[in-house]
Amino acid sequence: MAQQEEPSTLLHVELGVATITLNRPQEKNSLGVEIINELGDHLAACMANEEVRTIVLTNNGNTFCAGANLKRGNPSDPARYNLVEILTMIQDGPKVVVAKINGHITGGGVGLAAACDLSVIIDSAKVGFTEVRIGVAPAIISVVCLPKMRRGDAAELMLSGEKIMATRAVEVGLLNYAVPADSLDSAVTRLTDKLVRGGPNAMKHTKQLVYQVPKMSVEDAYNYTAQVSMGCFMHPEAKAGIKAFNQRVDAPWVPKSKL
Fold this sequence. Notes:
Blueprint: E1 9-14, E2 17-22, H1 33-48, E3 54-59, E4 63-65, H2 83-92, E5 96-101, E6 104-106, H3 108-115, E7 118-122, E8 126-128, H4 139-145, H5 151-160, E9 163-165, H6 166-171, E10 177-179, H7 184-195, H8 200-212, H9 218-234, H10 236-247
Parallel strand pairs: 2-3, 3-5, 4-6, 5-7, 6-8, 7-10
Antiparallel strand pairs: 1-2, 8-9
Helix pairs in contact: 1-2, 3-4, 8-9
């Protein structure tokens, strides 16, 4: 009997945190049809699951993601998602997505990491927009990467195709933190412990503010944010949170293990 292939991604949910693990280390977790399909299914399920408060995206193997899969032949399953839909789901979804980057990232993998709301990478990893060196452009991922960088940094990194150290990727704004490999777990846990303490409705709207307000005119931004503010204050979640604050206890949505 032929040995069954392991899933392309793994999902584990515990105490409000869903961890999705890219699980094709032998293929450097490159973005083939199978891995994109499973990643899309997991993201959609987690975004809809009220028990999931925060999503962590991580990897098995020494590469977080090497971008497009240029080697694998015809996939066994038809494509249900494309890269645009995955990046959009991460940024437009109501849950905060944290990239826990335990290895190198290149090509489209940089876009996958940059699309996440927060990111932590091991400081020994390298990061590179390597597309130009195989005759293509970092086109789709530029939509999520360019807003994070100054134009000069973006031009240097995208046009040179050079791989940089993780610490430089943090310096140019692509990622949030670079930490020693033995500190990755604790650094991400510190982040998720903070994130699950925010009210789900408040977190959803605050994430939308981060992405939407910079695109608006000042007048439109004030109109939009006034509606958001009023809606949040009128929501039952705010009433429960304010009551807990006045009583000096944790809000009812905080996972019991975090109390």
